[in-house]
Amino acid sequence: MASELDTRPGPPAVRAGPGRHRPRWAVPLLVALLLGQMAVAMVTTAVRQTPTIDEPVYVGTAASYLHEHRLRLNPEHPPLGKLVVAVGVALADPRYDASFEGDQGQVGRHLLYGSGNDPWRLMLLARLPMIVLTLLFGLAVFAFARELAGPAGGLTALALYSFSPDLIAHGSLATLDVPAAGFLLTSVWLLWRARLRPRLWLPLAGAALGAALATRMSALAAVPVLAGLAAASAWWAAKGTDRHGAARRAAVGAGVVLLTAVAVVWVTYLVVDPRLRWAPEQPVPAVRGLRGLAVEALPLPEAYRDGMRIQFAFENHPWQGFLFGRVYTGSLWYYLPAALLVKTPLGMLALWAAGTVAVLAVRRLRPAAPYLLVPTAVLLAAAMQGARDFGTRYAVFVPMFLAVAAGCLTAVGHGRRARARTGAVTAALTAFVAVSSLRAFPYYLPYSNEAFGGPAKTHLRLHDAAVDWGQDLGRLADRLRERYPGERVWLVYKGSGVPSFYGIDAADPRTVPARRVRGLLVVSDTSVAKATGPLAELIDTSRPIDTVGHSITIFRR
């Protein structure tokens, strides 16, 4: 086997040569340090942030899984991510009122604020399993890049991953974006490994793909790509046999991955309810045409297919967006690339571009190009067609896959000197990324890079989950107590938190004549960006005096 592997072309791992002695503990120590700083950043962020808009839905659904074992809530997202959240919810052991009637958002808010539970403790414990999962995906990024470019490549990729403001921000929340992307990356990495040992790695790659599909339905866009990669890996492993035998093994490899993925989705639903009872509490829209036929043809549970129908209805809704000061209805095809340009550290953008070129141009790295670049391109193209321009969380797979591509730069160059120069530039840009990320601490959600003014200016260019997702209600309460005690407060808050729970005594200024609005006008920055009518007039006739978390502005009237 060893001689067979040595004769195959491909990117060999770069090993330390003569005179380059590295202690065995050095790489594990650096991995631990990088993941350790990421863990500190995520836990610190999770401790201070109040529930974002989506989190109460997922936490409430997780609690219903634990107590009711039914699939009635949040059908538009499969259960796996919420089962991960349920691990933390089980540790918190909150009071759960099964008799409460309401929609999924109301159920979550009732659990947090209306059942005698401590929302700070409950949210932290619900977020911790996602934080652990995000750190584990970091190990997959490191391992993938190390196999392509050696330990230096692995460490470079892990550094970009662990300092990514988007991954820190969304990895510290009880939401579904990071786990879905991480499972996809893990599946692709295992498919890469299947080129050498298909019997071991193809089923595991299928399980990881199934986990992604069981977390977010947007992962369906990757299925054809990953099936093709599975076939390519199986064909590569069969190289040396006759053409018909290799083709047969390629078809079997793709089939193994797809069947395993489907099985994982079914198992996930069965874990929630072994009887698969499905009685939707909301009307399920009809989906016709090719989409309807595709949904009907999927060999997945009815609850999954109804969730797809609900998602298609969301895509038909005329959502409102905001980009570079412009409010618009609908979606812009270039929104996600523009948002990534704003919210990605400049050094990271440079390393992504250089890594992409290296993977395409360098012969020994080229076999990895379909595994790294094709899934990224297809997923990004699919996300760009979406109707919701709500931030880079819909493209959070990009910093994962392209971190691995950037790590390949350390293997570029003919000879030790050329490789050392490339490594020095790569290290300098990585350090620039680290500094930019650390300067944003602890405000990772509203991060933007230096070219766009940093986190304090993001609200001028983006909105919603890119800046203001309701995360700073607790900080607002602290600010009002410390700097503005006793003042009249008028609040327009975009989020799922309950202001009165945090001690904020405020009224909605939109419900009274403008002449009565005196004192402090507090407005979430997304509401500022999209303000029209009376609210816009109130803001125009007020003076900004303070900001909270780069997501809420305090005006004086």
* Shape verdict: globular
Structural class by SSE content: mainly alpha
User: What does the radius of gyration come to?
Assistant: 25 Å
User: Uncertain runs with pLDDT below 50, 5 residues or more?
Assistant: 1-19
Task: Based on the model shown, name its key terms.
about 550 residues; five-stranded mixed sheet; two-stranded antiparallel sheet
Describe this structure in words.
- The protein is mainly alpha-helical.
- It has helices spanning 2-6, 26-48, 55-68, 80-92, 104-113, 119-162, 165-171, 177-193, 198-213, 223-237, 243-272, 289-297, 302-315, 335-343, 346-361, 369-384, 397-407, 416-440, 473-483, 525-529, 533-540, and strands at residues 320-323, 326-329, 489-492, 506-507, 520-524, 543-548, 552-556.
- The strands form two sheets. Strands 4-3-5-7-6 form a five-stranded mixed β-sheet. A two-stranded antiparallel sheet has the order 1-2.
- Helix 3 (55-68) crosses helix 4, helix 6 runs antiparallel to helix 7 and helix 6 (119-162) packs antiparallel against helix 18.
- It is globular and about 85 Å long.
